Amino acid sequence: MTDYSEEQRNELEALESIYPDSFTVLSENPPSFTITVTSEAGENDETVQTTLKFTYSEKYPDEAPLYELFSQENLEDNDVIDILKLLALQAEENLGVVMIFTLVTAVQEKLNEIVDQIKTRREEEKKLKEKEAEEAEKQIFHGTPVTIENFLCWKAKFDAELLELKKKRIKEEEQAGKNKLSGKQLFETDHNLDTSDIQFLEDAGNNVEVDESLFQELDDLELEDVEDDPDYNPAGPGSDSED
Question: What family, per the record (predicted)?
Answer without folding.
Answer: Belongs to the RWDD1/GIR2 family.
